[in-house]
Amino acid sequence: MTEPFVFEAMGTVVSVTAADGVRPETRTRLTDAFEALEDRFSLWRPDAEGARVARREVLVPHASPEFRAVFDQAFDWREATEGSFTPMRPDGVIDLSGIVKALAIAEAADILDADGPDWCINAGGDVLVSGVQVDGRPWVVGIVDPDDRTALLSQFTSRGGRHAVATSGVAERGEHVWRTGADATFGQVTVAADDIVTADVLATAILAGGPDALERCQDRWSIEVLACAVDGRLWASPVFRA
Amino acid sequence: MSTRAQVASALASIGVLTLGWQVGTANGQTVAATTTTTTSGTSGTSTTSTASGTSTTSTASGTSTTSTASGTSTTSTASGTTSTAAKTTTTTTATSTSSLKDGTFAGASSSNRYGSVQVTITVAGGKITAVNATANANDGHSAQINSRALPTLKSATLSAQSGNISTVSGATYTSVSYQTSLQSALDQAKA
């Protein structure tokens, strides 16, 4: 098996697998991409634009074009999900970290594509795969059992091309993206979609908005969902049904 | 799957399916002799089940559900309903005692833009053994409605073959919790 390239970024761990391993030059480009996004959007690094906006040292209309582009994107998603996804914390602080990680994965995808069409990237449990494994078998993404993080609940098999699998869980509550009108039905939501930002945002939106958000998001986007309720119930799209 | 997990799944499924359930009795009446739940002033259904080791309650408007386990009693109510807790509870040792009658029952339909979904459960030996969600599509939308996420039991979801897994998706781990994660084990196994 090919040795995966594993590195820390954005407070989590990124694992990258590619056909013949990840070249040194590609490794540098990947770590630089994550670093650059964190450098701009971090809420913790004192000089980061994200932190300065959070402290209201900088008002959004005066922030950089790069910041404002991501800010606008996050608020577009807020509108599209009718508020189930929101980068606005209850205390009024803008927290874009939920969407920034997905953007980093998307940028990594372009970097990896330059070396070849077959790769897999997993950033903190959000996955984007492309093509097939080195032996021609499809990528298979396991879904963690929310009741036992050492066990798997189900799996998703890619069908060639790019597929994203993102999972939001109660462990994340309070971390990245804050929720309004929270419905506490679901404890973990996994969304499979063609792109990582959609999968990531909607996993968060459905986790926050519950069964109602699940219906609305399925109405509007082509996604597959495995939603685990805190009391053990499951809502499963066909791909997750036996 | 362990008995406890099966029981939890069965109870959990009862929870989601009690929205508008008619489990073979008139509104507000008991389902089994061992437990009594009354609701007043509302229309809706009442379901009581017991199990050892677990307790699950969920409510929605118009319904009342009470579950008890191992000597504890939990009651939750939705707006507009009142219910009194069960007077007696019977718990068995290894298996659950459910007040559901055996048979096949249909719940209320839920609808979305493509049509409606009818969920049917099969009860055997007092436990839910099957969940069937039937999609009734509006004209021309059968493909869409069948692609929806539908309520199911854990035992009916596609299980993972651990030997085949390339990578693992779950709630975000930190750099620290990564160390004890499945993903970490996979990364090390491939190195």
UniProtKB/TrEMBL annotation, chain B:
<feature type="compositionally biased region" description="Low complexity">
    <location>
        <begin position="34"/>
        <end position="99"/>
    </location>
</feature>
<dbReference type="InterPro" id="IPR007329">
    <property type="entry name" value="FMN-bd"/>
</dbReference>
<feature type="region of interest" description="Disordered">
    <location>
        <begin position="34"/>
        <end position="102"/>
    </location>
</feature>
<dbReference type="GO" id="GO:0010181">
    <property type="term" value="F:FMN binding"/>
</dbReference>
<feature type="signal peptide">
    <location>
        <begin position="1"/>
        <end position="28"/>
    </location>
</feature>
<protein>
    <submittedName>
        <fullName>FMN-binding protein</fullName>
    </submittedName>
</protein>
<feature type="domain" description="FMN-binding">
    <location>
        <begin position="113"/>
        <end position="189"/>
    </location>
</feature>
<keyword id="KW-0732">Signal</keyword>
<dbReference type="GO" id="GO:0016020">
    <property type="term" value="C:membrane"/>
</dbReference>
<dbReference type="Pfam" id="PF04205">
    <property type="entry name" value="FMN_bind"/>
</dbReference>
